[in-house]
Amino acid sequence: MSVTPGAPPARPPALTAPPAGPGGRLALRAGLALALSAALAAGVGLLTRSHAPAPAPAAPNAATPRVATVRAVPAAESARFAVLRAPHGAADAIDPIHPGSGPMGANPALARTVREPRGGLSAGLVAVVPARGAVCLRVPFGHQVAQWWCQRTALAARGHLLMAVRPAGRLRASMQLLIGLVPDGVRSVLVRAAHGVRRIVAVRRNVYETQIYAPRRVTIALPGHRVVSYPAP
Question: Which of 56, 62, 98, 134 is buried most deeply by CB count within 10 Å?
């Protein structure tokens, strides 16, 4: 985990991820009031230009070991996610807030960037980044803060790479931005929210994103007629 010195950024929204599982959970809080919870076996990176150092984790976690950067998209990832089979172009370039690799050996130079409508909690950009034995989502907040969410490839292939952005402040029922990655063959996901709201969200280049009040569950019909359902972060 690294922090690069410079001018402190504006306070970003609060962010959450799914409950911890086999790989443990990492909770980081910097002086920017930016919070992150890691997903199942997830590697998570916080990269800022703040003077405030991130506290060390209480125990070893998948986010902390130094892992060699991947130099090409792993075959297991390109086989499952068409976005990573697409030619890499200038539109995929991401702002390298901190030089070098991301968590779990993620290589920003191999990222594919998906553009979503910008507004509210959405920055309008979601990068899908291959890593070593994992795949990551990278979401920027301006030019000074970026958040990573990573999941082991097998779990990501079951749709279990999802995260939420909440408004800054205390946790409460509120509008949230849900972002997730799904494998090839999934055209939409079903999001259930408070007050019986059900919303079908379209998938674009393996990524879905929606802003919705108090989401409860995300249901995904995977290829092969298998349906999975996960609690919203």
Answer: 134
CA angle 141, 151, 172 (to 5 degrees): 55
Number of H helices, E strands in the chain: 2, 15
What is the rounded CA–CA span in Å between residue 205 and residue 113? 9
Cβ neighbour number for residue 233 with a 10 Å cutoff: 22
Separation of alpha carbons 79 and 82, rounded Å: 7
Among 184, 176, 180, 185, residue whose Cα is nearest residue 219: 180
- Report residues of the chain scoring pLDDT below 70: 1-66, 97, 99, 118-124, 142-143, 167-172
Find the distance separating the first CA and the last CA of the chain, reported in whole Å: 23
Q: Which two tokens stand for residue 80?
A: 């499952």
**DSSP of 203-232:** -BTTEEEEEEESEEEEEEEETTTEEEEEE-
Sequence letter at residue 127: A
Domain limits of the chain?
Answer: 14-170
Tokens of 36: 């992150």
Predicted TM-score of the model (pTM): 0.71
Token reading at 84: 């990573």
**Which of 178, 128, 145 is CA-nearest to residue 54?**
145
Three-class SS of residue 195?
helix
Q: Which residue, 63, 78, 69, is CA-closest to 24?
A: 63
